[in-house]
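== Item description ==
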Amino acid sequence: MGADRSYAYGAAAGLLGDLLLGDPRRGHPVAAFGRVAAAVDRALWHDHRGWGAAHTVVCAGGAVALGTLAARAVRPSPAASAALTAAATWAVVGGTSLAREARTIGRALESGDVEAARARLPHLCGRDPQALDADGIARAVVESVAENTSDAVVGALVWGAVAGVPGLLGFRAVNTLDAMVGHKSPRYRRYGWASARLDDLAGWPGARLTAVLAAAAGPDPRGALRAWKADARRHPSPNAGPVEASFAGALGVRLGGTLSYGGRVEHRPVLNGDTGRAVRITDIDRAVQLSRRVGLLALGGTVAARLLVKSVKGLKGRAK
């Protein structure tokens, strides 16, 4: 069993593990990384881009180095390589937890318990829940499912296909750092700049693949492509824009509009506003189902691409 087959089996096993088990309630590796990153933050923080860049290099570079050392250690054993890839994939993807949180909020809304939905929303996204009614919460959930399909599933699989275990760990590290320090708060406006920009770069291919797959797997492919083309560039995020626009078009809903984060109000462009309707509570489950289909297609596509590239390189090597 070659290295690329080991990766293919391991990635499939890791995604299956996430589907069956989800994230552990305690001792999650990403949470452990977050504690380390927070300690580095306390040690290095200065209101300066250079110190923030150092924080990014130490934390993200450390994750990549750890993945590289682990991959080299198990390289002689294909079975161990597959097991390491499975463990890394399970640790960095979060599709099942994303679906569970979204559906928990959806059930609360269906039962009319808006306060319970508000209390749960911070587990999924950073919106101010008290500023949202039931329809606003439903819209926030659908938007979060769309964006996190790219961040928590597809982006990791893309970088895993490119760079194996170091790519998996590195992508999750960069994405976690962006969530921790990449926001535009007074403390992190300069210090978090490097993490935010690196996350934009790392997330670029996964976001475009997510948008393509949402169009392919959704109930309205033409609507998804139309909304992506018309509205993605209007979104302030270069990666959330294509993903949210494609999901909006695929599901036939309107996303975007006025948002509130930490007391700061943003007026974002409406996505799929010409043809979409307002988000309903039932759209939460539709978004979750689309997210799952996108994740499975991403696994198949990225693994196939990795195996194809390896085969082409092998043919070229034999031709020489």
About this structure: Residues 134-181 form the longest helix (48 residues). The two ends are 24 Å apart (CA to CA). The chain has a mean pLDDT of 94. The first strand starts at residue 255 and ends at 261.
